[in-house]
Amino acid sequence: MTDPIADYLTRLRNAIMAKHRVVEVPASNLKKEITKILFEKGYILNYKFIEDGPQGTIKVALKYDPVNKVSAIKKLERISSPGMRKYTGYKDMPRVINGLGIAIISTSKGVMTNKEAAQLRIGGEVLCYVY
Questions:
Q1: 104 within 8 A of 128, measured Cβ to Cβ
Q2: Distance CA 32, CA 38 (A)
Q3: What's the DSSP call for residue 7?
């Protein structure tokens, strides 16, 4: 697999389109950090890291509106890819839907949102947009 983050986002996107409650994805440290951010920002209901075999899996419980059955995640968009990396400095931090969404940034201090990276005044690789 050449792009595991794109695979992770695609699995989430497909599960949302099929109205699944839970989705399982192969684990990695970067995917675990992205999952933690999605949980902290309220885009997913819950998550669980399962250590089985050499890699392990992540079980993600998706969040839906109880009345309209609409997902909390409207769009997951991969920005930086292995063939074309996208980097940003803290002054040029991207704003997703005028601040309503989040951009997940991989920095030297770890994986964080665009707002946290701007507060710490550090830039990094823009992994994806979530809104």
A1: yes
A2: 10
A3: H
Tell me whether residue 93 is exposed, middle or buried, using C-beta atoms within 10 angstroms of its C-beta: 0 to 12, 13 to 18, 19 or more: buried
Query: Does pTM top 0.90 for this prediction?
Result: yes
pLDDT in tens, 8-28: 999 999 999 999 999 999 999
Closest-CA residue to 15 (of 85, 73, 65, 80): 73
Residues of the chain with pLDDT under 50: none
Is 94 strand, coil or helix?
coil
53: left (phi over 0), alpha (psi -120 to 50) or beta: left
Q: What pLDDT does 53 receive?
A: 84
